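Example (one chain per record):
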Amino acid sequence: MSGGDGVALLSTSHPVLSGGVWANTPSSHVDLSVSALQAARTRMEKVKNARGFQFRMEPEKLVVPIDSRWIMDEILGSATLPYVPKTDTPNTVRNGLTGIVWSQLTDTDCWFLLARPAKSKGDKGHSLKCVMRIQPQFDRDNEFESGDRKYKGRMRVGFGYPDARGVDGSTGI
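Predicted structure:
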């Protein structure tokens, strides 16, 4: 699925209207690590607007599948750099991030950074959308012969994004 710029959500070639491209994923997909998270935060803070000026985004959420929960907890829960023996170096990569484990992610090594949601068009933040095309409708009926009760439900949902700014991540190795 492509967004408003005709490119996939995670891409190294999102076009800038004034010329050039910007990336919101590494050129080679990587698993979640301190260095991968540092690189993603840097990319998000260097994202460009339509005129090619820096449009600095601040990541707010780190979204991972169930399989990456422990790595996320080690990175975000450590006051000093994890995986480094006897270090006093503070773990600054976790600043301002909240971890979210999303059970619906089926790829076991993907991960995503999200900025806060944009409040309006042109505002800083992600513009991922979920639209309820048909609100949930439920009905029930009784089967006269057997006495069974039947239930049915119906709804229609649409997903999309007009702009990929405010999202960064990797599909893993």
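Caption: Residues 14-127+163-170 form one domain.
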